[in-house]
Design goal:
Protein name: NodB homology domain-containing protein
Strand content: 5-15%
Radius of gyration: 20 Å
InterPro entries: Glyco_hydro/deAcase_b/a-brl, NODB_dom
Number of helices: 8
GO molecular function: hydrolase activity, acting on carbon-nitrogen (but not peptide) bonds
CATH class: Alpha Beta
Oligomer: single chain
GO biological process, one term: carbohydrate metabolic process
Mean pLDDT: 90
Shape: globular
Length: 337
Amino acid sequence: MDTLDFVPEALPDFELPRDLLGFGEDSLDPEWPNGARIAVSFILNYEEGGEHNILHGDDRSEAYLWEKGGVATERINGRHLMSESEFEYGSRVGAWRVLRLMKEFGFPMTIYAVAQAFSKNRAFAKACVRDGHEVSNHGLRWISWEKCSDDEQVEMIKKAILLLEEASGEAPVGAYIGRGNIKTPALTARAHAELGKPFLWQSDCYNDDVPYWVDLPQEKDLPDSEKKGMLMIPYCYVTNDYKFVASDPGPGFPGAFVYEDYLKQEFDQLYREGGKVMNIPMHSRMVGKPGRINALRNFIKYISEKEGVWVCNRRDIASHFREKFPYVPGKLAVKKE
């Protein structure tokens, strides 16, 4: 299936062009396995131990994404008890609670793993692989990369790949950096290529409900037969449990009952449409709290009783899509003949 063509903006180096058209009115049917109507991707962001902290060599405490987060709680050149304790709850308690929940239903998930954080909790890292979950690259540290040079980013991504493999026993084949810059997605592909490591997917995008291919700027001068492209599996903020603690901008989820209801509403609509990916982004220190995870459990029970639901990790999505819609330069997706 050919997609609508579009004219990309000319951008230098590793910057991807914008695409305001996508798949157009009819979208794309990825033809999920066994005729499934929807692919549901549970993602656990594991960041605890990789955040800003002067013990990590930073000049400040972490003020982002915890229960009382915000600039007013930041400590410059000092430690912040509340912030540190919230992150510790995620690694000590919340992460294990999420792992038990997924095991209860036999559902796989993808771990967006910050390498430094995973390396500090190797028992959990290895338990994730033991239980069949996918380990992916969420960066070497969970800090802003906005001002990092291209080479600095590539080196951090490469170090993260190797550290994640060492800590968990599994090398990541996908990435969501999250706090990078406009060049980060393409630089991720460069890092994998330089290490000679397989790279199946990238998720630093929020612009669709289905996967799609992009051309890599660094491959523009290669013959088409040598280009690999990059498969994007869009992520999202709307169902993200970070909205429990989001206050700027707001509003977030005011309570677990709203979270549970919204997840069901989004699922129902995507299930009705068919052929979509639903993201369930989680954080150990957020949805790992008792009342919130109970709401998540109610949602999981809800979808487990539906026909045609493919609960999968992102590696599975990428493998399926690559088989059905192999990369064709200049196209978002072309069905294999």
